[in-house]
Amino acid sequence: MFDKIRALFAPRQHEPDLDADWLIVGLGNPGAKYAATRHNVGYMAQDMLIDGQALRPLPSFKAQGVLVPDTTALALRSTTFMNNSGEGVAPVAEKLEIPPERIIVLHDELDMPAGKVRIKQGGNENGHNGLKSLTEQLGTRDYIRVRIGIGRPPKGMPVPEWVLSPVDDEGLDERIATAADAARLVVEEGLQRAQNQIHAR
Q1: I need a surface site. Which of 6, 29, 123, 187 has the fewest CB within 10 A?
Q2: Neighbouring residues of 11: CB distance < 8 A, sequence distance ≥ 6
Q3: How far is C-alpha 57 from the chain's CA centre?
Q4: Domain for residue 3, yes or no?
Q5: Does some domain include residue 1?
Q6: Which residues are annotated as a binding site for tRNA?
């Protein structure tokens, strides 16, 4: 399949462009300091989805990406910090002409218990600054979210401290695998079928 993707990676080379119909965005903060934190479970799920491939810089964009194996989806990650994620995602979506309903965002969710994964389209950002940035830059809330539950902090712990602390919940690997599977199912089978399968787990 050919379209605009290869031009993103090597815009000065005259090569045919690879096709992508979807963006799968992992939300998190870059750098080793944040790698194992609750706020980075979106990165973790995206890493599982791309199956060991390295994300490659997209010249002229604040983003990295790689094609998801056996799909027409580009795994995309902003090189900004979480609160400015939209600055890396929206320009790529515009360049590839991918509409919001084909943008899947993997992210941590305070308002769901650890262990739960749910899929929805649109809705409020519930205070999540990464989602707020995406909504602002995309100009809509109508993108798809794969919500990875991290639960609320213990009484007396501020939310920023909770989300930026290491995630060590029992069953984390299973939850991350479910979130990666959720994104793939949306691409392969559509939103409703993906919801039916994931929400039954």
Answers
A1: 123
A2: 59, 60
A3: 16
A4: no
A5: no
A6: 34, 81, 83, 129
Task: State the total domains in the chain.
Answer: 1
Domain ranges, residue 136? 19-200
Rg (CA), the chain: 16
CATH number where 46 lies: 3.40.50.1470
Q: Do the domain assignments include residue 180?
A: yes
Measured in whole angstroms, how far is the alpha carbon of residue 50 from the centre of its chain? 12
Q: What is the DSSP letter of 81?
A: -
Q: Is 39 a catalytic residue?
A: yes
Tens-digit pLDDT string for the chain (201 aa): 345 666 666 554 433 345 689 999 999 999 999 999 999 999 999 999 999 899 999 988 999 999 999 999 999 999 999 999 999 999 999 999 999 999 999 999 999 999 899 999 999 998 999 999 999 999 999 999 999 999 999 999 999 999 999 998 888 999 999 999 999 999 999 999 999 999 998
- The one catalytic residue in 14, 39, 128, 199 is 39
Quick check: is 5 in a domain? no
